[in-house]
Amino acid sequence: MKRLDGYRSDISRCVRCGACRSTCPTFGVIHREAASARGKISLADAFIKGEVELSDTFIKHISECVLCAACQESCPNDVPVPDIIMAARAEAVRGRGLPLLASVIMKGLRNPDNFISGTLKIASLVQGLVFKKVPGESGLHRRFPLPLIQGERLVPPLARRFLLDIIEKERKGHRGDNGRHKRGIKVGFFAGCIINYIMPDIGIASIKVLKKAGATVIVPSGQTCCGMPALGMGDVDDARSLALKNLEAFEEQDLDFITTACATCSEVLKRRFRDILEDEGPEIKRRVEVFCSKVRDITELLVNDIGLTSLVLDDQSPTSEKIVTYHDPCHLRRGQGIKDEPRELIDLAGLKRKEMKHPCRCCGLGGSFNITNYEFSMEINRGKALDIKNTGADIVATACPGCIMQLRDGLHRVGAKTEVRHVVELLAEKVGEG
Questions:
Q1: Regions of the chain where pLDDT drops below 50
Q2: How far is it, in rounded angstroms, from Cα 277 to Cα 268?
Q3: Domain boundary residue among 96, 115, 130?
Q4: What is the per-residue pLDDT for 104?
Q5: CA distance 93 to 276
Q6: What are the b/e assignments for 67-90, b being 16+ CB within 10 Å?
Q7: Which residues contact 155 (CB under 8 A, 6 or more apart)?
Q8: Separation CA 96–CA 154 (nearest Å)
Q9: Per-residue DSSP letters for 383-422?
Q10: Angle between the 56-63 and 37-48 helix axes, to the nearest 10 degrees?
């Protein structure tokens, strides 16, 4: 992966015009130059030239970014600001190391079977002792003070059964059933951390729709985190390790496509694996190209590669009167250019769709940004939550489980009762049992 000084030519294309300031969600909250993309590019340039040191202030400023890429989208010279910021964060990790909490988290992600999975299984059993259910909401509030969990935060409950465990149990009960379905399409499903541990219903719905469309679905047991949490924190080494594990897990299958219902994961698998593993030698690079060429976000796979129109139209069940508005995940619309496909799936699900005022406004999650800068994150979210509330929609649909968590928290804070769903869940309800 490119070091920060490898972005010199990209940084030089920034003419300090300030177009990014009007779209940057962090600048929109604190109105400080260093919070804007232009300010961060100037800091990166000064660091490369040795004009600023790797100080706490430098690290603070480069950390105040949700990596939404709105700045790059508005930049007349297409400066890759998110890539530059992640490279700057990597310099911070090389110079200072990971913070203690981040180090513990990454240790768990490196060895999920030995640490994360077991710990979260125990946590799922005792979460009722630590958190209380919020009436009428899809979340929990803490019962007593806890580090990094503010009293007003709507915490998503851990699943009682994790998706990979559910799949493994089903696999053991149907040994030898690896034949292709009639359409001959074999799809590898990548769960991702949130779907696996918190929202397995999204994974189950995704697999159900894919099978209904005639695909054989394989869920490799050796898969792990996509690596974006590590990459976002500047931990390139762990991101590389996780990428290699996933590459190996999916290569073992004779797959036509690799898909996921997480917009962040699909961007990482499709694009950033190439960056993360570019220094691994020609053989790894060849394997990565094959892997990345098969990756599709589930919304584009269903619409563009499999096609569901005839399948859904054959279902004559009554059309719902519920109104749905759609939130564009940053990593899907800006990161992958996928805008129409999720909306088409909503329409195919028989729901009335109504656009909000700013559908591609960032929800403010930003991965670990929501953990380390919760109030800042939720202030970014407030505009999005009000946009949703003002539509009067019954449901807000999106294609990213991280956005789902953030939207539920933000809507709770503005007193909206709007239901938050993944587009594939809505479609699964329409197509019925497989």
A1: 178-182, 316, 318, 433-434
A2: 12
A3: 96
A4: 65
A5: 16
A6: bbbbbbbebeeebbbbbbbbbbbb
A7: 131, 139, 140, 141, 142, 149
A8: 32
A9: HHHHHHHHHT-SEEEES-HHHHHHHHHHHHHTT---EEEE
A10: 140
Nearest alpha-carbon partner for 14 in 57, 55, 43, 52? 43
3-state secondary structure of 210: helix
Q: Tell me the C-alpha distance between 427 and 338, whole Å.
A: 18
Measured distance between the N- and C-terminal CA atoms of the chain, rounded to whole angstroms: 43
Prediction pTM value: 0.93
Distance CA 11, CA 45 (A): 7
Number of domains observed in the structure of the chain: 2
Query: Of 163, 155, 210, which Cα lies nearest the Cα of 188?
Result: 210
Question: Among residues 42, 73, 96, which one ends one of the domains?
Answer: 96
* Helix 236-251 with 100-110: angle, nearest 10 deg: 20
CA distances to 7, 49, 112 from 163, rounded to whole Å, are 39, 48, 14
Q: Which domain holds residue 79?
A: 4-96
Burial grade of 255 (CB within 10 A; 0-12, 13-18, 19 or more): buried
Q: Which of 279, 281, 261, 258 lies closest to 270, judged by CA? A: 258
